[in-house]
Amino acid sequence: MRLHPSKVSRMYEFAAVAKMEGVELFYFSPGKVNFETKTIRGYVYRNGSWKKKNFDFPKVVINMVAPITDKQSKIYYELRKCVIFTESSIGGKDSIHDILKDTKFKAYLPQTKVASNVTTVMKFLGKHKKIALKPMRGCKGVGVIFIEKNAGDYTVYDMELQYNQVDLKCYLKRLDLSKHVMQEFIVSETKDGLPVDYRIHTQKNGEGKHVLTTIYPRIACIKNKVTNYSQGGYTIDIDTFLNHQFNSRDKELKHMMEVIAIELSRTIDKYYDFSLNELGIDIGLTKDNKVYIYEVNWRPGAPVIFSGELNHAKNLIEYCKYKSKNLN
To answer: What tens digit of pLDDT does each residue of 110-127 get?
Structure first.
């Protein structure tokens, strides 16, 4: 059962932008789709409240939320045959790495491999000393752990435990390593030594071109923790942060991030038979100002900081207008 639109905060931004853009936007759940009549029972925002109404199949569906049940999935994929969806899966973390390693972005990639098995992980640790182990299809930093080799022992920064080699292997055997990637650890830190990465959000606009939605730093509260909000991280304004951390190089570094993000989005878009919309690009920046691309996420969600959410809604609605006029 999906939430009523009044309980989905971003629906108000979508409704407001849709009204300004002169398009009709309605909210629905998969169970309200009728394939026989090609209609959908949904909600439209009118005069300060959400009203129920029957709609013909729309030209474009904003599929920001994935189906949960088998029934929802069946309806989701059947509807996709009839209507353009804004978002399309680009695969797991390993898929994007395989694409980028054959492009000009190869130099920006930390070494990344499918974990596969315990032996593979131990060999990778022997080479890199400290690694990140990530679920291929994880999000918000859930399930990410760091492993560091110190002399004959290993520290697993999941529960802050130390293991000898035998115990570490036992720990790894409890994970489904075939569904994880391992990545060399990149030291991207603030002046105070806290881990930081940068989320760069790109979208397509009303001309179908990639544009920058927002950039923001994600800072961990303590060392050896992931930077995501859901895991206790925090953020501040990107200009303020870069100026404090890099002084006179702040504008140069921000411009570099913007250029990389747009070029990267265009590059990835060319590798798929379908048109991509928005991407969340996570990068690290070392002390010598070298950029590393950690991962690229599809359907990254609205950046709920500063003006990010409104920019996101505006780009998305304009892109829907573009897609409705260019039905492919």
So the answer is: 999 999 999 999 999 999
Residue 234 per-residue DSSP state: B
Q: Is 221 helix (H, G, I), strand (E, B) or coil?
A: coil
d(CA 233, CA 68): 27
Q: How many CA atoms lie within 13 A of 97 on its CB side?
A: 18
DSSP 3-state helix, strand, coil percentages of the chain (rounded to 5)? 35, 25, 40
**Domains within the chain, CATH numbers bracketed:** 5-85 (no CATH), 93-107+188-325 (3.30.470.20), 112-184 (3.30.1490)
Which of the 8 DSSP states describes residue 108?
Answer: G
Contact 14, 36 (CB under 8 A): no
**β strands within the chain, DSSP E:** 33-34, 39-46, 49-56, 60-61, 84-85, 112-114, 130-135, 145-150, 153-156, 161-163, 180-184, 196-204, 210-219, 279-285, 291-298
User: How much is the CA Rg of the chain, to the nearest whole Å?
Assistant: 22
Confidence of residue 220 (pLDDT cuts 50, 70, 90): confident
DSSP-derived 3-state class of residue 112: strand
User: Smallest Cα–Cα separation from 304: which of 213, 212, 208, 205?
Assistant: 213
What is the DSSP annotation of 277-297?
Answer: --EEEEEEE-TT--EEEEEEE
Distance of CA 24 to the CA centre of its chain: 27
Residues 32-48: pLDDT tens digits?
Answer: 999 999 999 999 999 99
Contact 136, 179 (CB under 8 A): yes
Distances (CA, A) of 227 to 144, 188, 221, 224, 324: 11, 11, 8, 9, 37
Q: Residue 55: beta bridge partners?
A: 40
The 10 Å Cβ neighbour count of residue 197 is: 21
pLDDT of 270: 92
Is the Cβ–Cβ distance between 34 and 40 less than 8 Å?
yes
The answer to whether residues 71 and 78 touch, using CB atoms and an 8 Å cutoff, is: no
